[in-house]
Amino acid sequence: MNIATYVSGLTLLSDQVSKREVEIILRELTKTLDRHVVGDVVEFGCYEGTTSVHLAYFLQATDKHLYLYDSFEGLPDKTAFDESPAGMQFKTGELKAAKKQLIKNLRQMNTPMPRIKKGWFSELTQTDIPVVISYAFLDGDYYESIMDPLRLIWPRLSPGAIVVVDDYANEALPGAAKAVDQWLQTHTAALSVEASLGIIKLPE
Ligand SMILES: C[S@@+](CC[C@H](N)C(=O)[O-])C[C@H]1O[C@@H](n2cnc3c(N)ncnc32)[C@H](O)[C@@H]1O
User: Fold this and answer.
1) CB neighbours of 96 closer than 8 A, spacing ≥ 6?
2) What does the pLDDT profile of the chain (204 residues) look like in tens digits?
3) Any domain includes 60
């Protein structure tokens, strides 16, 4: 499928991601599919499914399962890493999504229903995530909301897996880049940046 054509015809469910970002997210997912990277797909911070519905669509003809995670309570408290004059609008409890609305949005795609887990990322354990992961989209906005999933999924990532982190280049949410940069000081992977996304590729 031509991803640019697919995305140009879309009306996104919210402004949480841009069409350009959805295009990149789907392009990177497709790379892992074309290269037969082993494992399932996860999204941490699914909100009402703006991105998830398209991940589900692109996975429907594969043997991969999609796992979605969210507090459904909105954002947690900021840490010092997240403070930014440009990001004053991000407050505890903002972006609270209803799980029912997420399910409704997913049903409209007529794709297999993803596994949805409600909870704070810091409270998730290895039993909550797939045994092997090929692709991850991290969109928790804050330092700990990126760091916690990185810590959780890293041992489960396949060779050649890709992790896309939203807001890497967003001055309103500086914690996302701080978490990624700090993580990559002690873990081997290649980082590139496109739009606001940090794209982490593990060695093959
Ligand atoms: C920017 S929104 C995600 C947008 C979504 N990816 C989309 O495409 O519509 C951030 C989401 O992350 C969730 N979130 C942030 N930090 C979290 C944490 N530590 N634990 C669980 N959920 C968290 C919020 O509840 C919110 O729904």
Assistant:
1) 72, 73, 74
2) 799 999 999 999 999 999 999 999 999 999 999 999 999 999 999 999 999 999 999 999 999 999 999 999 999 999 999 999 999 999 999 999 999 999 999 999 999 999 999 999 999 999 999 999 999 999 999 999 999 999 999 999 999 999 999 999 999 999 999 999 999 999 999 999 999 999 999 999
3) no
Q: How far is the CA of 96 from the centre of ligand 1 (A)?
A: 8
Q: Domain for residue 3, yes or no?
A: no
Burial label, 103 (beta-carbon count in 10 A; 0-12, 13-18, 19+): middle
Residue 75 beta carbon below 6 angstroms from any ligand 1 atom? yes
Tell how far the Cα of 141 is from the centroid of ligand 1, in angstroms.
7
Please, are residues 100 and 52 in contact by the beta-carbon 8 Å criterion?
no
CATH number at residue 38: 3.40.50.150
Look at the chain and report how many structural domains it folds into.
1
Does any domain span residue 84?
A: no
Containing structural domain, residue 197:
15-51+65-79+90-201
| Degrees to nearest 5, angle at CA 157 with 151 and 161 | 120
Stated pTM of the model: 0.98
Ligand 1 mean position, distance from CA 47 (Å): 5
